Amino acid sequence: MTDPYADIDPPRGPWVWLALGIHLVSFFVPFGAEGERILSGYHAFGYSLAMLVFGPLFGFTGDRVGWWLMIAIAGLPWLANPCFWWCLIAYADDQRRVAAILGGVSLGFGLLGLPFGVGGLRFPAYWVWLSSFAVPLIGLALTSPRRGRRSG
Hints:
Elements (H helix, E strand, L loop, with lengths): L12 H13 L4 E5 L2 E4 H19 L4 H12 L4 H13 L3 H16 L12 H19 L10
Antiparallel strand pairs: 1-2
């Protein structure tokens, strides 16, 4: 007896939407505190992006080592975001190899924040943000390629 559901593709949408939802939640989870003001994940997102874009402009004057170190601390982990977004697009399009590579790269970039102290319990937004990178990789491990489509 044949399986009547054998030709139905496994769902991709739930994994993509779950990862995107967790990623968006990380923007509103507290990231840390600055005096009495509580900073949210979107503060860290904006600060890291600003360091990545504007940091090199200031890195050529004054304390060069300090500025380049700040760019490495704040800017490089931010690169996990575009890798993650591209991973979701590739995953939704069933480009499994590309999605797996980009998911691993985004997780790697995200983990670059750990040596600089943003991984403690005081930074819940970091952990939510980082966990959003693992969701597509879990989805890739638990689902099979679509039939009739080239993976990769």
